[in-house]
Amino acid sequence: MKCKDLFLGIDTSNYMTSMALVNLDGQIVKDLRKHLLVAQGQKGLRQSEAVFQHITNIPLLASELFQDQDSQRLASITASVRPRPVEGSYMPCFKVGQAFGSALASVLNIAFNEVSHQEGHIGAIQEQSAFRDKEEFLALHLSGGTTEVLWIGESIKLLGGTKDISYGQLIDRVGVKLGMAFPCGEKLDQIAYGLDKSSNLLKPVSFRNGWINLSGIDTQISRELDDILCIQAPEQEAVQRLLIRELFDRINESLVKLISFWSSDTGCRDILITGGVSSSKTIRKALKESFSHSPITLEFGQAELASDNAVGLGFLGRKISCQKTQ
Q1: Is the peptide bond before 234 cis (omega within 30 degrees of 0)?
Q2: Which tens digits make up the pLDDT trace of 127-172?
Q3: How far, in Å, CA of 32 to CA of 306, rounded?
Q4: Is the pTM of the predicted complex or chain greater than 0.85?
Q5: CATH superfamily of 137-301
Q6: Cα angle: 321, vertex 323, 326; to 5 degrees
Q7: For residue 179, how many other CB atoms are within 10 A of its CB?
Q8: Domain limits of the chain?
Q9: Are 9 and 1 in contact (CB under 8 A)?
């Protein structure tokens, strides 16, 4: 009888089709991802389009995944079946991973675990971080559609975050307006990271009692970008770049306020930061500098595990399996 020592994770978000294998030792065996394609000028996908692309991508990733791995070694399959671990959280795109994962688990007669996309994000960073064995900490989930401050304990509790759009949506809207391909975060981050100064055109992000509003700065930067169009090239590009840097500076300022407020409110100094926005080199550097002389500990983990992936789901499947055998 073959050793059941591999744990499969499947994630079908609105940005990426992902499949990953981790082993009993907590090592990443395979990490496969395929971006969903978004038409030029669009700010995202309709759920029907995302579902169709996932249905196309899943067989391709599965074929690559098992090209050199024996499916009989799978101990469990874990899929994200909803955005967040709360009642009523639902997006059709997650049904694709749920359907494929449950069907494959049934055929192989192994356990199938259903968790949330958010838990996968947290698990991907926590498992290979200094917080691996911590039972309680604060987490910031900063992704394309989510900006939340969470209490992680026996369950996940929402504390604060944004009351309107997310950081990811704000950044992508700016990138699309500048003619970049969606998602735009990596490209804008490269521009911001390469500058040591910024413009001084944007007001600070609205902050009150542990919550932020981003619609105001969204309107401001859209207006400023329209005004910049009147400037002659190459000055136009130079001003745009300074404005992009200021956007990231304003995001960092608001993150410092969120972290400081909720750390003080809860008395917790351990902060895990995950989600695609947290892979930004500009934001990571700025936050580390902001809290370099603070008792607060920030844990970002590996940047490549911050964005949408199935590695965290594999880790969660392994954790669930180990708990059952104890």
Answers
A1: yes
A2: 989 999 999 999 999 999 999 999 999 999 999 999 999 999 999 9
A3: 14
A4: yes
A5: ATPase, nucleotide binding domain (3.30.420.40)
A6: 115
A7: 9
A8: 6-127+307-325, 137-301
A9: no
Model confidence at 1, pLDDT cuts 50, 70, 90, reads low
Please, which pLDDT band fits residue 234 given cuts at 50, 70 and 90? confident
**Six-digit token pair at 278?**
């947290």
Taking the C-alpha atoms of residue 182 and residue 15, their distance in angstroms, rounded to an integer, is 10
pLDDT of residue 326: 64
Widest distance between CA atoms in the chain: 72
In this structure, what token pair is assigned to residue 234? 């190459």
Cite the DSSP H helix spans in the chain: 47-65, 94-108, 117-126, 167-177, 185-193, 215-228, 235-266, 281-290, 311-325
Q: Is the dihedral of CA 294, 300, 301, 304 positive or negative?
A: negative
d(CA 190, CA 204): 22
State the pLDDT confidence band at 323, using cuts at 50, 70 and 90: confident
Tokens read off for 283: 């934001």
Question: What is the length of the chain?
Answer: 326
Q: Is the omega angle on the peptide bond into residue 183 within 30 degrees of 0, that is, cis?
A: yes
CB-based burial, 102-136: b 16+ in 10 Å, e otherwise: bebbeebebbbbebbbbbbbbbbbbbbbebeeeee
Q: What is the DSSP letter of 279?
A: G
Residue with the two structure tokens 């055109």 = 201
For domain 6-127+307-325, which architecture applies?
2-Layer Sandwich (3.30)
Token code pair at residue 145: 């559609």
Domain 6-127+307-325 identical in fold to domain 137-301: yes
pLDDT(92) > 90:
yes
Q: What is the pLDDT of residues 8-26, one digit of tens each?
A: 999 999 999 999 999 999 9
**pLDDT at 232 (0 to 100):** 83
- Starting at the edge strand found earlier in the chain, the sheet holding 211-213 runs 206-208, 211-213, 156-162, 147-152, 137-142, 270-274, 297-299
* C-alpha to C-alpha distance for 72 and 80, rounded to whole angstroms: 22
